[in-house]
Amino acid sequence: MPTILVSTDDRSGPWLRRAATRQVGTLAIDQYVARTRLAYFSMEIAIRPDMPTYSGGLGILAGDTARTAADLGLPMVFVTLISRDGYLRQEMDPSGRQGDAPDPWDPQQEALALPAMAAIEIEGRLVWIRPWLHMLQRPNGNVVPILLLDTDVPGNDPADRAITGRLYGGDATMRLKQEIVLGIGGERLLRALGFEIATYHLNEGHAALLAISLLRRYPQTPTSAEGGFPYDVARVRESCVFTTHTPVEAGHDRFDYALVQRLLGDFIDQGVLRRLAGDDTLNMTRLALNLSSYVNGVAERHQQTAARMFPGYPIRAVTNGVHPQTWAHPTFARLFDALVPHWTHEPELLGRADQLSDADVRAAHDAAKAELLDLIRAAGGPAFDPALPVLAFARRITGYKRPHLLLDAPDRLAAIARRHPFQVVFAGKAHPRDEGGRELIARLQADIARLRGAVTMAFLPGYDFALARRLVAGADVWLNTPQPPLEASGTSGMKAALNGVPSLSVLDGWWVEGCIEGVTGWAIGREGDAPETHGRALLDKLEGTVLPLFHDDPAGWCRVMKGAISKVGAVFTSHRMMRRYAAEAYLGRGA
What we know:
18% strand, Rossmann fold, 24 strands, alpha/beta, twelve-stranded mixed β-sheet
C-alpha cells in the first residue's frame, strides 16, 4: 500500500497526498473516518493485558473509556504512543528490591501499520511518525479505532527512533519529545488519515501541545481577535476538553523554555507560549486549562482541590468509573446475566443485586477467591486459607499511597490476627525514578518476612492488567490508604465492588462519594482527621468492625457484599462517566 506523506509545515501548499486505497484487513478505515468527530488523546491506554502500553491507573481508565465508547457507539478515535518497550517488567532481586527491565511487545501481533506518516521537526531534524491501528471490537459488534504512534521508522535518526520506545522512559528531554509526538504528531496524523475532528479530549496534560498545533491552523481574523493573540484562541478552546488527574502542583509536567526552544525551534512564538503556559516554565496543565472550554477533575473532592490549585478556571467534576464487563469475574457476570440481562449496556441495573441469594453470591466469590489463592501459591507465596479473609492492597507504590500503613504497628497487628485471623496480599510497581517507592517495596517485603508465622502475607510482583483482575475479584476486603487530599480519584475499589468486595479506605478521592458506612464498606477515620491518626484508625476498624463481621456474622457480611455491588458497582461505571462526557462536554461541538 502506498504511503501518505505529510509536509512538515501545515500552513503551506498542498500538505497531504492521499493514498488511492486504505483497506485494513477486512475493515475499511474510511467507514470510521467518515463518522468520527471525537478524538481522545492519552499517553497510555490499557487495551489488552498482553499489550504493555500503559503504566497504571491513567492507562487503565483510558482503556475502560475506549471499551465503553465502543459499547455505546460513540463516534470516537483514540490516540496514544506505541511504547514498543512497554513500561517496566517488575522483577524482584533477592533483597526484595524492584528491578526495572523493559517489557517489549510486537505490534504486528495486535495492530496493523497504516499507510501514512507525518513529520514533525524536533531539534532541527525531521522525525517521521507512523500510526499503527488496533481495532477495539466489543461483543455487540461495535468498534473504535485506536492509533498507536511509532517513531521507530527507517530513515529516522537512531535517537528519534527510540522516542516511542519506553513509556515515560528517559529524562525530561525524552519526556518532552514523547509529548510532542503525542500532541502535535497525533493531531497531524488524524488529518493525514482524513479524520475531521470537532472535539479533542486531552486525558491529562501530556497531550496539551495538540492545542498549540491547532493554534497554528487557525490564524486570527478580525472577528476572532482575543487578547492580542495572532491566533483564533476561542476556536481552539471550543475544540478542546481537558481532564486533569493530578491533585498536587508538583505532579504537573513542566519543561524549561530553553529546552522547548531547542526541541521545537520557532514552531510557536515563545511569547504566545509563555502567556498560555506560564512565565517561568512550560506548564502543560496551564496550557491545557487556557486552551480548553471544558475542564474537569475526576471526583467531586478532586474538583474542589483542583479549583483551589487553579483559581479562576471553571473546573467541573466527572467522577471516574470502570468498565463493568471487563472487571466483573465470569462467575459474577453469569449471576448478573440471569438477574438483569442488559447490565453490560445499562450497568445501573445492577442496583438490583441485593435480590441475589446469599448462596449464589458466596459461590461466585469463592470461585474467584480460589483462583487468586492458586495464583499466590504459583508465584511462590505461602498457602492462604480459603476460609480466612484476604485483605488486598494493590496500587502504584509511592509514598502518598502509604502501602505500609497496615504494618506500622506490627505487634498490635499480630495480636489482632491471633483473635481474628486474616491474610494480606500486596502488589504494585514503583516508577523507575521513584527511589522512595522502590524503598517502600523492599520495606514491605522485609515486614512480611518479619511477621511470618503471625500474619500470612505475600507480595505479588508484576502487577498489571491481568493480575489486577484476579485481585479485585478474589480479595475479601479492598484496602486503600492514601494521604488526603492526594488521591485524585482511584478506581480499583470500584472494580472490587463489582465482585462484591467492599472497600476499607481513607475518605479521599472517589470513596468520599462511594462510602456508605457498613453498607458498601468502611471508612478509615473521619474526614479531616490528621494523617498520623489513620494507622490507629485502620487497626481499630479492622479489630472492632470488619473482622468480627466476617468471622461471626456470615449473613451480615453477605449484605455488605451485595451493598458493594448494588450501590457502588452499579454507579461508579465508565458508562455513567461517558454518558456524562457525551452530554456535558461533547454535545453541541459538532460531535
